[in-house]
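Subject: for your reference before the review

Hello V.,

The reviewers asked for a structural picture of the protein, and I figured it would be easier to keep everything in one thread rather than splitting it across files. Below is the amino acid sequence we used in the manuscript, unchanged from the supplementary table.
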Amino acid sequence: MLPRSPSSFGNAFFLVGHRVLDIRVCNGSLFRKSQRCFGASISCSGGVRNQSIVPSIEQLSDARVIYSVAPSMGHNQESHPESHFRVPAIVNALEEMQLTYKFRGSEVIELQHFEPASVDDIASVHAKAYVSGLEKVMDQAVEKGLIFVDGSGPTYATATTFQESIIAAGAGLALVDSVVAASKIKRDAPTGFALIRPPGHHAVPQGPMGFCIFGNVAIAARYAQRVHGLKRVFIIDFDVHHGNGTNDAFYTDPDVFFLSFHQDGSYPGTGKFDEVGSGDGEGTTLNLPLPGGSGDTAIRTVFDEVIVPCAQRFQPDIILVSAGYDGHVLDPLANLQYTTGTYYMLASSIKQLAKDLCGGRCVFFLEGGYNLKSLSYSVADTFRALLGDPSLASEFDDPNILYEEPSTKVKQAIQRIKHIHSL
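And here is what came back from the structure prediction:
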């Protein structure tokens, strides 16, 4: 893992094969003024992005879901669970289940022209030395074909990883722009969903971690604050693993509430009950580790008794969601019992929460999910929830593979977190 203390920002470490590269970055020459990436301009400006990417007022007034796609097809390691098959599997499922513009018309918008995130956008969360160092080691990736940029996970990079990662982050920022624009013309704004990879919630401010390169949700939170004046950001992370990177980015910030519920004891071992924030940010981080075997019943209780009162007390201006689908009972990397129906319930409930508290302003960001079938079906049912359609989870979920949830342990965990946060 990369060094995490602020004093180590000048050095970034990358694994190439089995060697570690020490990248020393001069503070005076971190960036060129502009670069080119897949034909898109990458600007160092911290201001408002090109507004031509925002759909027209007429389009926004009819839309219920706006999504963007950044599959990072060049960022791939053979047999790695975080592969370039993930996003295409979802896109294919949306087509097959008739949830795209082709079938739903103006209810669904796909943003097809968006800018990559700028260096300043990325550096609002990550150390500039890391951003610059990652870009520089792309030459090593060209030579080697694939390098490891963090030993945990492990997290790999290919020759296109830097470019594709800033495109992925930019896809999320474009959705923030569109959802905010829509909220100015209608009380119930459409929900955004960034179908992007690499995922982001493990990436710490100083470097990559756990399959993640840049913290897409964290970058979007800072962008919403800086560009749109949305001061109070509420982040819900329902990935099976703790979003330690997002946790760390806002640990002392009273204006960003980070709430994660995840499997106790899972990677990366963080996200304990007593991690509640510090300094001015004490109380605006909530971590709820759930026992293995937790499922639909547990999550319904978590939403009603923990998420809703936290959000109501915080009164956010926008809700961002780290949407990980690796809690599904069929996913190979964890031991929870979420079903496709669980994700439908979460999406429907989060959409209603955003409508009640912040004009519907809400954007989902894809995180984990490694069984392609359960991933694609669950995202499709999430779309149905956001569109107001009935769930079709019963066509996919098999109740016969579920077992009794550890209800006593779940209740104890929920009571403990309610006591800690005075809920």
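For the response letter, the relevant points are probably these. The mean pLDDT is 89. DSSP finds 13 helices and 14 strands in the chain.

Happy to draft the paragraph if you're swamped.

O.
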